Amino acid sequence: MKLLLTTFLLTAILLTSCKSINNSTENYTGDVIIYGGTSAAVIAAVEVAQTGKSVIMVSPDKHLGGLTSGGLGFTDTGRKEVIGGLARDFYHRIYNHYQTNDAWKWMEKDEYGNTGQGTPAIDGDMRTMWIFEPHVAEQVFENYIEEFGITVFRDEWLDRKNGVDKSNGKIKSITTLSGKTYEGKIFLDATYEGDLMAAAGVSYHVGREGNDKYDENWNGVQTGVFQHGHNFSVLDTPIDPYWVSDDPSSGLLPRISNNPPGKKGEGDHRIQAYCFRTCMTNHPENRIPFPKPEGYDSTQYELLVRIFDAGWREWFQKFDAIPNRKTDTNNHGPFSSDNIGMNYDYPEASYGRRKEIIKEHETYQKGLLWFVANDPRVPEEIQTEMQKWGLAKDEFTDNGNWPHQIYVREARRMIGEFVMTENELMKRTPTPRSIGMGSYTIDSHNVQRYVTEDGHVQNEGDIGVGLPGPYEIAYGSIVPQKEECRNLLVPVCASASHIAFGSIRMEPVFMILGQSAAAAASIAIDENIALQDVDYEKLKSLLLEKGQVLTMEDAVGE
Which of 18, 39, 362, 413 has an alpha carbon 20 to 30 Å from 238's alpha carbon atom? Predict the structure, then answer.
């Protein structure tokens, strides 16, 4: 009897162990597999669900929405009339939320409307609101997931070395580090980093191309270009870069590179600086004083002291107002939240290395806020005002009130069937097969801080070039070259030059491209064809039916 009981228990233990192993290597199947948790990922999933096809979101993020729910609530819209389809529906849902009295906890609704900042935008009969709190955006995304019954696996990270099963030019499945495998007919890489794209063997670029690559004017190194005021040329007094004035032997101050900037117009490995879009408030009941980060080092902000000493006082210029006495705070000036030059290896880095880079950015930016609020060398008028501000207690509540998403302004960019360049954006050359429109200024943040030939500190890479009007975005910019992969779409790390991506990279555009990608996936599945063989006229008709704006003739009326 004891032997039988012992045998039964051992068998039970073995069965339990096998069940656990099987769960860790479980297979899931859907028509469309979307890798990512960004705004583009959610919108693409909604579009697939609306077609009646099965969709699975495999998200490395626990929170959905990327930057849209991660602090970037002061939306970079450009011309709002070219934002249609599900992207416009998202902002309409934001509008509906703020029509309720319960939405206004920390201020009166009319009070917000009368500030002159961030007044809700009303577009004809389709009422929309473009400026919002992070937690409201996240809830809208979660509502989409629930409403359309979308299956989402969170905190699932692609096995970038061995996790893409590809044969005959098509991805068959992807596997995450947890051992789960997802099989599909079409795959979307909707991450900011383009990890699935890269793991699938699709061509891409990191950094700035030289101007000669695509016959552009604003790509590559941009020494001597000062447009936005995010450089040291805004100061009446040049800033010495050394600990001891005019003494190179004393060493450079922190956050200054000792490498030469390169020649104007030539390509390099550098990418736009990252930061966190912090949500601040000056409401006493909802304010948490800026925390002093572990590893805080006041010497990291010596350059800011010299900038203040030179008379600069624009510290609060980009405390952009969002509802309920909060801000979407962005970089502004020669030394701010942009952690210039500290992200070059992020696009290709391992997950562990990326975490280190993100942590360094967090320490830098938290330390910056603490410094301005507490260091005695900060001008009194700035420090007194800064001490009225803090992090919003009711935002990012599971992350110490700090954004859960770093602003990856640029990482990998696919080299697809068609590469968008400044020439298409500036209307010098036509754009084939439009699947949506962009309209925001060609906008690149600084990529380096260096010492000039005359011995002063300067930033480089900040570009702001106006456009002649909204521009079309090519279908070929979201599909790889056919010989590389026939069933992958890339709506975020789209095929564009560095400088063209500076405009395309806006969150509403990512949503637009996400929906258009999903629509193309539906056609490809129905006809059992490669994405590159999708008939454009069919796709165009479908997108217009769904309210997408493909040319200015389709623009949403004011």
Answer: 362
Exposed e or buried b per residue across 330-360, where buried means at least 16 C-beta atoms within 10 angstroms of its C-beta: bbbbbbbbbbbbebbebbbbeeeebeebbee
The pair of structure tokens assigned to 272 is 């736009």
In angstroms, the CA 412 to CA 401 distance is: 29
Residue from 96, 35, 88 nearest 66 by CA: 35
Distance CA(391)–CA(523), nearest Å, equals 46
CA–CA distances in Å: residue 24 to residues 20, 493, 520: 6, 30, 32
| Angle at alpha carbon of residue 401, lines to 397 and 407, rounded to 5° | 115
- On whether the CB atoms of residues 510 and 516 are closer than 8 A, the answer is no
- Sequence-distant (6+) residues with CB within 8 A of 422 are 214, 216, 217, 218, 219, 442, 465, 497, 499, 500
- What one-letter code names the amino acid at 176? T
DSSP labels for 187-207? Answer: EEE-SSS-HHHHHTT--EE-S
Distance (Å, whole) CA 319 – CA 328: 6
The β-bridge partners of 175 are 181
Tokens of 278: 């912090």
Q: Which residue is listed with tokens 């949503």?
A: 511
Distance CA 351, CA 357 (A): 10
Residue 138 is which amino acid? E
Residue 403 DSSP code: -
Residue 40: C-alpha distances to residues 34, 57, 534 (Å): 10, 11, 21
Element (H, E) at 365: helix 351-374
The closest alpha carbon to 36, from 204, 177, 194, belongs to 194
SS3 375: coil
Q: Are 435 and 513 spatial neighbours (Cβ–Cβ below 8 Å)?
A: yes
**Tokens linked to 324:** 């309920």
Confidence band, pLDDT 50/70/90 cuts, at residue 127: confident
Strand, helix or coil for residue 322: strand
pLDDT single digits (tens) 162-194: 999 999 999 999 999 999 999 999 999 999 999
The string of DSSP codes covering 419-461 is: -B-HHHHTTSS--SSEEEEE-S-EEE---EEEE-TTS-EEEE-
Q: 467-510: per-residue pLDDT in tens?
A: 999 999 999 999 999 999 999 999 999 999 999 999 999 999 99
Helix (H) or strand (E) holding 165: strand 164-167
Centroid of chain to Cα 415? 19
Give the tokens for residue 206: 């990191």
Residues across the chain: 558
Separation CA 370–CA 387 (nearest Å): 9
Gap between the Cα atoms of 363 and 255, Å rounded: 14
What's the token pair of residue 357? 């880079």
How far apart, in whole angstroms, are the C-alpha atoms of residue 434 and residue 184? 26
Beta strand pairing call for 126-127 and 151-154: unpaired
Query: In 3-state terms, what secondary structure has residue 96?
Result: helix
Question: Is pLDDT above 90 for 392?
Answer: yes
